[in-house]
Amino acid sequence: MQVFYQLVHVDFVPLITILYLFIFMKVNDAYDHKINGRFALSLLLLILLVISDNIDFYCSGLTYPTFVRKLAIMAGYILRVYLLMSTVFILRRDRMQKNEVLLLVSPAVLNTFVILTAFFSPRVFWLDEGNVLHREILSYAPHLLAFAYFCIVLLFAAVRYRRGHHDEGLMLFLSLASSLTGVVGEIVLKTRGLLIAAVSLMLAFYYLYLHLEHFKRDNLTGTLNRMSFFSDIQKFKPGQITAFAEFDLNDLKIINDNEGHAAGDEALVTTANIILRYLPRRSYLYRLGGDEFGVLFCNTRFDTVIRVIERIQDKFEKTTYTCAIGSAEWEKGKDFTEVYNLADKRMYIDKERIKNRKEM
User: Fold this and answer.
1) How far does the chain reach from its first CA to its final CA, in angstroms?
2) Hey, is 293 helix, strand or coil?
3) Contact assessment for residue 308 and residue 279, using Cβ atoms and an 8 Å cutoff
4) Against a cut of 0.85, is the pTM above it?
5) 65-95 per-residue burial string, b: 16 or more CB within 10 A, e: under 16
6) Which helix (H) or strand (E) covers residue 203, if one does?
7) Mean of the pLDDT values across residues 166-172?
8) What span, in angstroms and rounded, lies between the C-alpha atoms of 84 and 82?
């Protein structure tokens, strides 16, 4: 009965969160199956961790040591690190090379080997005749290796934030802080359930965030879509948007007809990546149509916008693609339609310039 009360008090919210997330993923079957699979793995590890923790809690109340408790403690040490590893794979959603996968898996595998030595060595932990747990130096290996995953998540969060995904970057920083608090709390307070609660809530909110982002972003390039563009124009306060630039990839139809749609997709992704590479902070890239992109510059001087565009043009000169660019400053007294039309006019002038240069 005590175990049941402990389960309700400590694990009720995480288990309900896991259950609802499983149901939502099942209902949302049309979503990216790879991402759903990675979330499902993390949720399965969470459930196993809840089971091992409760077995350990039940056995800790006995007056004599048991092999089952030893297995539960070992499983808890191992599962915590694999759980953090699985969250890193969720964050690293794009295609990974084999060496990257090996690098991400290595800390968890190393931790497994360290903990398995508890079968024949007391250097990890041991149970005395009164069933009291004694931790030794190697019992801190999971915490050190978990810290390696925290550093990886921190790196991913910084990269995402730097590439303009500010909301996702901030969410990752917050998730990192909550998970770290859970780990530290379990160590300092010598309690259980804090990491499970933190990770389950993190997974739920992050899944919902990705689900919302799925509708805000272009599936091919990862840039914000046309719906987000018009939403952001209304969202930003007056004076925040200082300039608009329009980018039009030239000859996309010719690339599709002559080289295939895969080559056309590659051209669009390359275009988006080039633009993103040089954008300053508080600038947002949108795919407005087939080969058309737009950038809203917020709190950015127009001379800075001009320099950014020049750098983007220089980069395109080093590729096999050409891109026509037009920009306009959002001055007082103008509405956005005027700014957009001026940038569009200048883009077509640049397109004509590129066409004439090719014919020379």
Assistant:
1) 87
2) strand
3) yes
4) no
5) beeebbbbbbbbbbbbbbbbbbbbbbbbeee
6) helix 194-216
7) 78
8) 5
